[in-house]
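Sample entry (227 residues):
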Amino acid sequence: MSTVRVEDVTKEYDLGRTKVPALRGVSLAVEKGEFMAVAGPSGSGKSTLLNLIGCQDRPTSGRVLIGDQDVAVLGDDALSDLRARTIGFIFQTFNLIPVLSAFENVEFPLLFQREIKDSRVRAERALESVGLAGFGRHRPDELSGGQRQRVAVARALATNPALVLADEPTANLDSATGEAIVSLMLDINRRQGTTFLFSTHDPRVMSHASRVIRLEDGRIETALPAR
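Predicted structure, serialized as tokens:
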């Protein structure tokens, strides 16, 4: 079963009296365990697509299915629960809470899942998995850009999500650090079978992807097959 299915999805935004199309009839499937990239220039619809898959927004038409669940029929509470249990997020700007330590940032999403009794153990293991076992007490301003992105990766993995969405995760990193982050996520994908879906224009990410989907003006223009 696919982790994600997007079926003939359109998304329009209202700009005064004008409707601005962001996605125009996009269909794709993301299979379990893939390391898949969505590429394209700014304004092509990459982030919009990830926002729809991440249940941060709803399509104007068409369907988005996570597993076998059509997200359009879910209310806000059910969507929040689906996000918390199924999806991890990695952002290009890290989105860490500055007053919290690295450990507390990683543990934070676990605190919303009341049935999880081992949140501290999970957070520690997640930090260890990204090579930051000794940095749990450091706050974000005490870490390098690469270390902050590693904390963001650990936070995304702490809930054991089926799917990780990464929106331009290497955009604010230098070349060597970006390559290290991509290698880290690829290793996690191979060891744990976690599905990764990226929006990117970084050739380093695309070179490691099992498939690359290219968006232009809200439409899929090309799809490179799995390696």
